[in-house]
Design a protein that fits this description.
Elements (H helix, E strand, L loop, with lengths): L2 H15 L12 H21 L4 H12 L3 E6 L5 H12 L2 E6 L7 H4 E5 L5 E5 L9 E7 L6 H13 L1 E4 L2 E4 L4 E7 L11 H6 E6 L6 H9 L6 H6 L11 H11 L4 H15 L13 H4 E4 L2 H17 L7 H12 L3 E3 L1 H4 L2 H15 L4
Length: 365
């Protein structure tokens, strides 16, 4: 390594070290949690100014944020996925990084980029992941299925460990929340996410056009919704303090309890989604005995309980009820069930039907 390269790296390390932030406080009172519940209500209200007709999607995103889980949005082109995630990032607060999925994207593009400056000297600048150091709160991967598997592998570590290695050192992002979206329409020059990467997403949420005709008319004819940048700026910044989300999440998980009956209910759902034939599940045109080949891991079931506890807390309950489990079951579990390749092409139709039927067949306490 030349002396010039060593100087460049030294300056880069010094710059990233200056971005370290102090850890948040770890104690929360009942009054603190109540204020946080009010913050979440305001968060949903603020984002709904920019993205109308998506109340359920917003609630699921809020649950994921409070459970410290990463989110993958799916939907047709032009339904507002990117606008939604930009508005959510603004309302969360903290530093924001973004990258566009392309077929020529390399893993290093997330970490750094090199170039020759105007004086003819080599320069190394931080990429979207390292640019803000430990203060990075939201990382948005746009059209993730356009990126190659090598990029998915790096993203997998970033999601799993909230950290990565670069320049002979480890970087940690304690406040990081990853959001991604996936275009369901185009199949050319796209790469399906590997099972391990999909399993790291806490939820996969489908975004559809609003069902109400008045909201559709507003989206088309109201000029307010035609300038996305100005629309996102209407969202109040930093409604949720990203530095405290980990503490709040831990407090919620400790506060909301599950009875023995609810615990057995969750275990029965787990068995049924893995072995639907044993739960008398039938789906028209599907050989149920051959349908599921894997998935629905212990991690996935623990994520289901985490999401259900947040749902209960938002409803001002400190004990789980069956509806808490049912309300988040499809978004948490569907992408974690791996089906026979014969049925993979019909996955978008099969998995909602499977989740719905499992919830119908398994008796709730």
């Amino acid at each position: 390594m030349s002396s010039r390269e060593r100087r460049v790296r030294s300056r880069f390390w010094a710059w990233t070290a200056s971005l370290r932030v102090p850890p948040p406080s770890t104690s929360l009172s009942d009054a603190d949690l109540e204020r946080w519940r009010q913050r979440v209500t305001r968060f949903e209200a603020e984002v709904s100014q920019a993205v109308i007709g998506q109340a359920r999607v917003l609630r699921l995103i809020a649950i994921s944020i409070l459970a410290r889980g990463h989110v993958l949005l799916e939907g047709d082109v032009g339904v507002g996925k990117t606008t939604l995630l930009q508005a959510v990032a603004r309302a969360i607060g903290g530093a924001y990084g973004r990258i566009e999925g392309t077929i020529d994207l390399m893993p290093s593009d997330l970490i750094y980029h090199t170039y020759i400056d105007q004086d003819g000297r080599p320069r190394v600048d931080a990429g979207p992941v390292l640019r803000h150091g430990e203060n990075l709160a939201v990382f948005f991967f746009n059209e993730i299925n356009r990126a190659r598997p090598q990029v998915h592998s790096l993203l997998l570590r970033l999601m799993a460990e909230r950290g990565l290695s670069a320049f002979n050192r480890d970087y940690v992002f304690p406040y990081l929340q990853v959001f991604a979206d996936r275009n369901q329409v185009e199949r050319e020059e796209t790469f399906e996410l590997p099972a391990a990467a999909r399993d790291r997403f806490f939820m996969e949420i489908v975004v559809e056009r609003p069902a109400e005709s008045e909201l559709r008319r507003d989206l088309v004819f109201n000029p307010r919704f035609h300038d996305v940048a100005r629309l996102v700026e209407t969202v109040a910044p930093g409604v949720l303090d990203h530095r405290e989300l980990g503490t709040v999440s831990e407090a919620i998980q400790q506060r909301v309890q599950a009875s023995q009956a609810i615990q057995q209910y969750v275990l029965d759902l787990w068995t049924a989604i893995r072995e639907p034939q044993g739960a008398a599940v039938t789906l028209e045109g599907i050989d149920v005995e051959r349908l599921v080949i894997g998935g629905a891991s212990p991690r996935g079931i623990s994520y289901l309980v985490r999401a259900a506890r947040v749902n209960a807390w938002l409803a001002e309950r400190e004990i789980l009820v069956p509806e808490d489990i049912r309300s988040v079951f499809p978004e948490v579990m569907a992408h974690r069930v791996f089906v026979n390749p014969v049925y993979e092409g019909r996955r978008a139709q099969i998995m909602p039907a499977l989740c719905r039927t499992v919830l119908e067949r398994v008796a709730a306490p």
